[in-house]
Design goal:
By secondary structure, the protein is mostly beta strands. It has no helices and eleven strands. Strands 2, 4, 5, 6, 9, 10 and 11 form a seven-stranded mixed sheet that branches. A four-stranded antiparallel sheet has the order 1-3-8-7, with no helix packed on it. The protein is globular.
Protein backbone atom coordinates (compact mmCIF):
# COMPACT_ATOMS: atom_id res chain seq x y z
CA UNK A 1 0.00 0.00 0.00
CA UNK A 2 1.28 3.45 -0.88
CA UNK A 3 -0.32 6.80 -0.21
CA UNK A 4 1.42 9.89 -1.56
CA UNK A 5 0.16 13.33 -0.60
CA UNK A 6 0.89 16.51 -2.49
CA UNK A 7 -0.37 20.04 -2.81
CA UNK A 8 0.69 21.53 0.48
CA UNK A 9 2.51 24.83 0.80
CA UNK A 10 2.43 28.34 2.18
CA UNK A 11 -0.76 30.33 1.75
CA UNK A 12 -2.08 33.58 3.18
CA UNK A 13 -5.10 33.62 5.47
CA UNK A 14 -8.26 33.42 3.42
CA UNK A 15 -6.49 31.55 0.65
CA UNK A 16 -7.10 28.09 -0.78
CA UNK A 17 -5.19 24.90 -1.38
CA UNK A 18 -6.10 21.55 -2.86
CA UNK A 19 -4.38 18.51 -1.45
CA UNK A 20 -4.13 15.29 -3.42
CA UNK A 21 -3.43 11.75 -2.30
CA UNK A 22 -2.45 9.19 -4.89
CA UNK A 23 -3.16 5.66 -3.71
CA UNK A 24 -1.86 2.32 -4.89
CA UNK A 25 -1.55 -1.25 -3.71
CA UNK A 26 -5.17 -1.83 -2.75
CA UNK A 27 -8.64 -1.62 -4.24
CA UNK A 28 -9.16 2.10 -4.01
CA UNK A 29 -12.70 2.21 -5.37
CA UNK A 30 -14.09 0.08 -2.54
CA UNK A 31 -12.10 1.75 0.23
CA UNK A 32 -13.03 4.58 2.53
CA UNK A 33 -10.42 7.31 2.61
CA UNK A 34 -9.73 10.03 5.14
CA UNK A 35 -7.65 13.08 5.83
CA UNK A 36 -6.18 13.90 9.23
CA UNK A 37 -3.81 16.61 10.39
CA UNK A 38 -1.32 17.33 13.11
CA UNK A 39 -0.61 20.89 14.11
CA UNK A 40 2.68 21.84 15.74
CA UNK A 41 2.75 20.64 19.33
CA UNK A 42 -0.70 19.07 19.09
CA UNK A 43 -2.14 15.62 18.63
CA UNK A 44 -3.56 14.09 15.53
CA UNK A 45 -6.93 15.46 14.44
CA UNK A 46 -9.29 13.72 12.02
CA UNK A 47 -10.46 16.16 9.33
CA UNK A 48 -12.68 14.44 6.81
CA UNK A 49 -13.61 11.11 5.27
CA UNK A 50 -15.22 9.78 2.14
CA UNK A 51 -16.78 6.38 1.74
CA UNK A 52 -16.72 4.22 -1.35
CA UNK A 53 -20.23 5.39 -2.22
CA UNK A 54 -19.06 9.00 -2.19
CA UNK A 55 -20.74 9.99 1.06
CA UNK A 56 -18.66 12.40 3.12
CA UNK A 57 -18.01 13.31 6.73
CA UNK A 58 -16.32 16.35 8.23
CA UNK A 59 -15.18 17.61 11.58
CA UNK A 60 -17.54 20.43 12.51
CA UNK A 61 -14.87 23.12 12.37
CA UNK A 62 -14.10 22.25 8.74
CA UNK A 63 -17.66 22.09 7.45
CA UNK A 64 -18.27 24.67 4.76
CA UNK A 65 -14.56 25.36 4.26
CA UNK A 66 -13.16 21.95 3.32
CA UNK A 67 -14.44 19.58 0.65
CA UNK A 68 -13.28 16.00 0.23
CA UNK A 69 -13.72 14.21 -3.07
CA UNK A 70 -12.38 11.21 -4.91
CA UNK A 71 -11.60 10.13 -8.43
CA UNK A 72 -11.70 6.36 -8.62
CA UNK A 73 -10.35 6.38 -12.17
CA UNK A 74 -7.19 8.05 -10.88
CA UNK A 75 -7.07 6.32 -7.48
CA UNK A 76 -6.87 9.76 -5.93
CA UNK A 77 -8.59 11.52 -3.06
CA UNK A 78 -8.61 15.29 -2.76
CA UNK A 79 -9.11 17.84 -0.03
CA UNK A 80 -10.12 21.28 -1.23
CA UNK A 81 -9.47 23.80 1.52
CA UNK A 82 -10.91 27.30 1.29
CA UNK A 83 -10.83 30.32 3.57
CA UNK A 84 -7.78 28.96 5.30
CA UNK A 85 -6.92 30.20 8.77
CA UNK A 86 -3.61 30.23 10.66
CA UNK A 87 -4.97 27.50 12.91
CA UNK A 88 -5.20 25.23 9.86
CA UNK A 89 -1.41 25.12 9.80
CA UNK A 90 -0.48 21.46 10.14
CA UNK A 91 0.91 18.41 8.43
CA UNK A 92 -1.97 16.80 6.55
CA UNK A 93 -2.05 13.03 6.19
CA UNK A 94 -4.00 10.75 3.89
CA UNK A 95 -5.37 7.56 5.41
CA UNK A 96 -6.61 4.47 3.65
CA UNK A 97 -6.44 0.69 3.84
CA UNK A 98 -5.06 0.99 7.39
CA UNK A 99 -2.10 2.98 6.12
CA UNK A 100 -0.87 6.54 6.26
CA UNK A 101 0.93 8.70 3.79
CA UNK A 102 4.05 10.69 4.59
CA UNK A 103 2.12 13.91 4.99
CA UNK A 104 2.19 17.30 3.32
CA UNK A 105 2.84 20.55 5.14
CA UNK A 106 0.24 23.31 5.02
CA UNK A 107 1.27 26.67 6.45
CA UNK A 108 -1.21 29.52 6.67
CA UNK A 109 0.54 32.78 7.40
CA UNK A 110 0.74 36.37 6.20
Amino acid sequence: VQLVESGGGLVQPGGSLRLSCAASGFTFSTSSMSWARQAPGKGLEWVSGIRSDGSTLYTDSMKGRFTISRDNAKNTVYLQMNNLKPEDTAVYYCLGARNWGQGTQVTVSS
